[in-house]
Amino acid sequence: MGKKTSKPDTDKVVERVNKEFEKTSNRIEKLINNALKQLDGVQSQIQEPVKKLLKEIDELRSREVKRFSEEFDRRMDEFHELQGNVMDRLGIANDKSGATKKKKATAKKPATKKASAKKSETKKTAAKKPAAAAKKSASASASAAAKAADTGDLTRVKGIGPATARKMKDAGITDISQIANPSAADEEKLAAFSNVKGFSTFRAEAKKVL
Q: How many CA atoms lie within 13 A of 91 on its CB side?
């Protein structure tokens, strides 16, 4: 009698164990699925900020490269303008110093035995000097008039170097009068050069040239 009752009990225990095992397996599977879903959510949450950060870094790098390039170009323009101004001033200074040296050399020449002869020749040529002086004065006046008429040379305005002059001509400022007495359209074109050193004095210096 005892052996017959033990077999059904064993089957029940095995069945119960199988059910518990199945339940446990289902729970584990659900936990794993939930964990995978959470992992996917975390990955998506991480990827979006990372992508955004990388995009911002690229934009920042592009802005900085552009700013550096513009600053470099501006510095080079200032350098070329300064170089042009220095060369112009050196050229004027050399001309003046050369003239001064010639005058000093002439003043230091000792008197010779031919001084009396030169005096007599000077008297003879005295009548010719007014005509020569008038001719020289007319030539100087013509040269000054030609220089004054050359209002297309923007570098004659103090502070405007060759590089800036080229850019102004490209922008439509081709005459000094457009700087001295600009129209509304010219003022808009000139506004693009407001960052150039000495821009505030361009109009006054242009009026001096005219």
A: 6
